[in-house]
Amino acid sequence: MKLRAFLASGFRYLRFPEPLESEFRREHRSRLRPWNRLAIWVSAFTVLGFVVLDHFVLSPNHARITNMVRFGMHVPAVLIMLLCSSKRFYERWYELGIGVVAPLFGIGMVIMAAFSPPHEVPLVGGRLLLVAFFFYFMIGLRFREAVGANAIVLASLTVATLTTSIPTATSTYLLFTLFAANLIGFSGSYALEHANRTAFLEHRLLSEVPRTMA
Fold this sequence. Notes:
Structural class: mainly alpha
Number of helices: 8
Helix content: over 70%
Mean pLDDT: 91
Largest sheet: none
Order of helices and strands: HHHHHHHH
Oligomer: single chain
Distance between the termini: 16 Å
Low-confidence stretches: none
Strand content: under 5%
């Protein structure tokens, strides 16, 4: 009956009382492992794709900074997350690893955009939209963690626009676009986790019916 009452009253802050919260996180994390690993492979091929695309599309003026970020931050981040998503390390290390690596990956993208030639900032900065949606929907971050990671990236972009030579018009447009993407991601991620938590409670209720009838 407690589960039924809790389901009826709602959980708008996306938090269950213990031990129910820990049980939800454990089940949710376990169910998502294959999809999280697939998402990390997707990110690996995306990084590789931009390596090739940048060679043909972008000027070599900022190749040094771009390669430092790509091979000093992005590639190690992908490799770390592939390791953390393996069966051996997933349960213990995945959430901690992704919570640290995801914001660093986004900050690296901000650095790449900030040191791009002015006319190429929109091309490189546009990738921040992919980063935002990737954090919200692809790598298994819960709502609060996804919002936190994206907030760090948005704050980093704000600092970059104030301290680097990104043109004012470009930085304003890019900041607003990323902010709008976060509003969309925020709403969708909240709705998705709320639905997952509802399904979890409903499944628990159904599993308790046989015991009640016995």
